[in-house]
Structures are given as structure tokens and as C-alpha cells.
Amino acid sequence: MDILSVILIAIGLAMDCLAISITSGIILKRFRFSEAFRIALLMGLFQALMPVAGWWLGYGFKELIVDFDHWVAFGVLLLLGAKMVYDGFFPEKEACFDPLNWIVLLGLAVATSIDAMAVGLSFAFLPMDVTLPFIVIGVITFLISFSGVYAGCKLGHKIPFPSEIVGGVILTLIGAKILIEHTLLT
After folding, report:
1. Number of domains making up the chain
2. Which domain holds residue 73?
3. Whole-angstrom Cα distance, residue 17 to residue 96?
4. Residue % of the chain over a pLDDT of 90
5. DSSP letters of 56-96?
6. Pairwise pLDDT comparison (126 vs 4), residue with the higher score
7. In whole angstroms, how far apart are CA 143 and each of 47, 112, 136, 139?
8. HSE, side-chain direction, 13 A CA sphere, residue 17
9. Which residues, including other chains, have CB under 8 Å from residue 69's CB and lie 6 or more apart?
């Protein structure tokens, strides 16, 4: 998998974190570097670690499904992308939360990284070194989350942004690219 695909996957995965980070910034109202860093660090850390868990699980099954692994990767990314697009069009009513409470923040980090675990699972079926993608996913999520907190503090409710829809479309397109590479180009 090329680095551009990894970066696009990382951006797609970070969209849930972006939404949480912007919301956190709106709630915090005043930007403080240490608070934005804490939120972004936890989001980035979980987005980097959950694909490792997914890859580890998937690697154990690799030999069983090597003949149709590209379909698995496509299916996982398609389902995740479709869910993100659906959630973007039909969001659940968000409850107000304290983004600085460690338990709340930990729960949000885990919840937003479940899709990263599924992406890690799809990585197990691709011929690639997975170290760099995990690092890229974590760093990009950190940067996007930090920027999201900043934007939330500065812009508040002024600019609506369909981040989950964009993320879902990116994941779906990456899944289609994997499928095309393994079926039409080989």
C-alpha cells in the first residue's frame, strides 16, 4: 500500500476524532495548549493502537482467507465508510460532555477508534509492513484532533462541517482502490 493511501485512510479515520475535538473546543470556549494536547494525544494514541489490535487479530486468520482477502478489506472499509456517511446524515443527538474528564475522554477515544481496529484487521490481509501506517494514523489523528480543538474554540458554531461524511467517502474509496488493485490490475 502506498503512502498516499495510508495518509487518506488516516484522514478518514480521524474524522470522528475531528468531530469530537471540535465539539470539545466549542465546550471549552477558551483555547489552552495543554488541554488541546491532552485531547489530541489520547485520540491519536488510540487511533494508532487499535489498528495494531485489529492487525494482530486478522493476521491469525490470514492463511484461511488469503484467496479472498482483498474482498474482506474492501468489505470492511465499505461498511465503515457507509456507517460514517449514514452517521453524518443522521447524527444522534449529542449530549454535552466534559472533554477534560479522563474517563469521558478515554471513552471517546475508544469509541472513535473502533473503526481503526477494523482497518487494522484489513491491513493483515495486505502484503505490507504495518509499522509506518500505524504511526501515520496516530500522528495525523493527533494533528487533526489538536486542530479541531483549536477550531472549536475559535470558530464555535459558525462553520458546519460534514466531517463524518468526508471520512466515510474516503474510507469507501480506499476500499474500492484495494479491490481494483487486486482484481483488475493483477
Report:
1. 1
2. 3-183
3. 16
4. 28
5. HHHHHHHHHHGGGHHHHHHHHHHHHHHHHHHHHHSPPPPPP
6. 4
7. 12, 15, 11, 6
8. 36
9. 62, 125, 126, 182
